[in-house]
Automatic annotation (TrEMBL), chain A:
Pfam families: NQR2_RnfD_RnfE. Keywords: Flavoprotein, FMN, Membrane, Phosphoprotein, Translocase, Transmembrane, Transmembrane helix, Transport. InterPro entries: NqrB/RnfD (IPR004338). This is NADH-quinone reductase. It comes from the Bacteria. It comes from Sinisalibacter aestuarii. The chain crosses the membrane at residues 12-28, 34-52, 59-75, 81-99, 129-147, 154-170, 176-194, 201-218, 224-251.
Automatic annotation (TrEMBL), chain B:
It is a multi-pass membrane protein. The keyword Cell membrane applies. It is found in: Endomembrane system. The chain crosses the membrane at residues 44-62, 74-95, 101-122, 134-155, 175-198. This is Na(+)-translocating NADH-quinone reductase subunit D. InterPro entries: NqrD, NqrDE/RnfAE. It comes from the Bacteria. Keywords: Cell inner membrane, Cell membrane, Ion transport, Membrane, NAD, Nitrogen fixation, Sodium, Sodium transport, Translocase, Transmembrane, Transmembrane helix, Transport, Ubiquinone.
Length: 258, 221
């Protein structure tokens, strides 16, 4: 991915372009509050990117903007500034910047921040994702897939499993917006998701399966909480899924070529 | 006295430069478990330091009589006896804290730090030097425990030694207690951050890089 036009920042910018529909719909419905939240997260993430640029000469990345947007949409409400500041700093620094910046991280910084806040402040209410914002995730997935920064396989795998669960009678009428938004903002992160063909299928299927299981059995959890937990576990497992895909490919190749 | 500068370095080296927790990553199991509040952290630190110093002294005194083949058994017997004494004292005089520390005082017996110091230092050095070394290591351990314990109690409950420092929301203040700080992962995060801070300040502690990333040409624009 270092030849020609496609370097790290092109991927980040394309991802940013892809999430624009979601951002616009969300700001349109959230008004000034939403803008304020977004600016706060942009400032915190940007601050750490700049600090790491000054101290470690790591170029800041546009991916920080997507992180800030995901946090603004999905982070718990009524938390106060200090907890959000601690949580965002933790996620952005520990999950992304200490590894050498975006592209070398294992987990999505937004997922880590949300999980951190979820464990740290279990009583704070999670936001409700309204239906139009959920629908806006569909153009995001389309643009992302067409631009080549999101994987059709991950989206298809997740949608497939959730579709089967829906046909088997799982009630998703109130949770599907959160599932769609989490899928495009957290699970489809081009860095933190699997990167082989089979691994991507498995990654999507795993996310869908975990989300369906949590929806069915974790009765007191909010929709966003379920999505964040499933996304965290799925992206933790993603490297193993890639390993499995590569091991299978090697075994097949060895059998064919001797 | 000619030996005193050496004793002084033996005492001060393990505080930061050779700290058993942040450099050697020894004894972290108890460091993670007992640091949810400052008073348990202090009690644990004091107990461990006492056990460490006494066991180092005793083992060093009889070091020439311990047969090499059964030395671990002898060392563990001595350490375990001291731990039982400490445990009984805590139960007698500080029952509440001892109940909150639960098994971790008894587990000092198996603390890597104690056996590490007796095995590597007390076995080969005279009693005074061994006890000074043990004291230094005990203080180094205590330092980390107190720092982490204080941070976790303040951030997790808004209190210090059970007294309110930051007024919490339930009491009508402004501080939202950070529940994660009372769970084990936060101790890992704090310890990690502390190791990072110490190694940034003292770069000679950092381990050599395991592999170098390949040099890539940045595309020219």
């Amino acid at each position: 991915m270092i030849k020609g036009l496609w370097d790290r920042e092109t991927v980040a910018l394309m991802w940013l372009v892809a999430v624009f529909p979601l951002a616009i719909v969300w700001i349109h419905h959230g008004g000034l509050d939403a803008v304020g939240r977004l600016i706060f997260f942009l400032a915190v993430a940007g601050f750490w990117h700049v600090i790491f640029m000054l101290v470690r000469a790591q170029p800041p990345s546009w991916a920080g903007v997507v992180t800030a947007l995901a946090l603004a949409i999905l982070a718990q409400q009524e938390l106060g500034l200090v907890p959000l500041l601690i949580g965002t700093s933790f996620g952005v620094v520990i999950a992304e910047l200490v590894f050498g910046g975006w592209g070398r991280n294992v987990l999505n910084p937004a997922t880590v921040t949300l999980a951190f806040l979820g464990f740290g402040f279990p009583s704070a209410p999670w936001p409700d994702i309204i239906v139009p914002v959920g629908w806006a995730a569909i153009p995001v997935a389309l643009i992302g897939i067409l631009a080549g920064v999101m994987s059709l396989r991950i989206v298809a795998g997740a949608v497939l499993v959730l579709g089967i669960a829906w046909m088997m009678g799982l009630d998703m009428s109130e949770t599907y917006p959160a599932l769609l938004v989490g899928l495009v903002l957290l699970v489809c992160d081009p860095v933190a998701s699997a990167s082989t063909a089979l691994g991507r299928w498995l990654n999507g299927i795993l996310f869908g399966g975990l989300a369906a299981m949590f929806l069915a059995y974790w009765s007191e959890a909010a929709a966003v909480q379920i999505v964040v937990s499933a996304a965290l576990l799925a992206s933790l497992v993603a490297p193993i899924l890639d390993e499995i895909a590569i091991a299978l490919w090697l075994a097949r190749r060895r059998r064919r070529l001797g | 006295m000619a030996a005193s500068p050496r004793l002084w370095t033996t005492l001060t080296e393990p505080l930061i430069r050779q700290n058993p927790i942040t450099l050697q990553i020894l004894g972290i199991c108890s460091a993670l478990a007992v640091t949810t509040a400052l008073d348990t952290a202090l009690t644990m630190a004091a107990s461990l330091t006492v056990v460490l110093v006494l066991s180092a002294g005793i083992i060093s005194m009889i070091r020439k009589m311990i047969p090499g083949t059964i030395r671990l058994i002898v060392q563990i017997t001595i350490v375990a006896s001291l731990v039982i004494v400490i445990d009984q004292i805590l139960q007698a005089y500080f029952f509440d804290i001892s109940r909150r520390l639960s098994v971790f005082v008894s587990l000092i017996t198996t603390n890597c730090l104690v056996l590490g110091r007796t095995e590597s230092f007390a076995r080969n050095n005279p009693p005074l030097a061994s006890m000074v070394d043990a004291l230094g290591n005990g203080l180094g351990y205590s330092l980390i425990l107190v720092v982490i314990g204080a941070l976790r109690e303040v951030l997790g409950r808004g209190k210090l030694f059970g007294f309110e420092v930051l007024p919490t929301v339930d009491q009508g203040g402004w501080f939202t207690p950070f529940n994660l700080m009372l769970l084990a992962p936060s101790a890992f995060f704090m310890l990690g951050g502390l190791v990072w801070a110490v190694r940034s300040a003292l770069p000679e502690q950092a381990e050599p890089i395991e592999h170098t990333p390949p040099e890539v040409e940045e595309p020219s624009r």
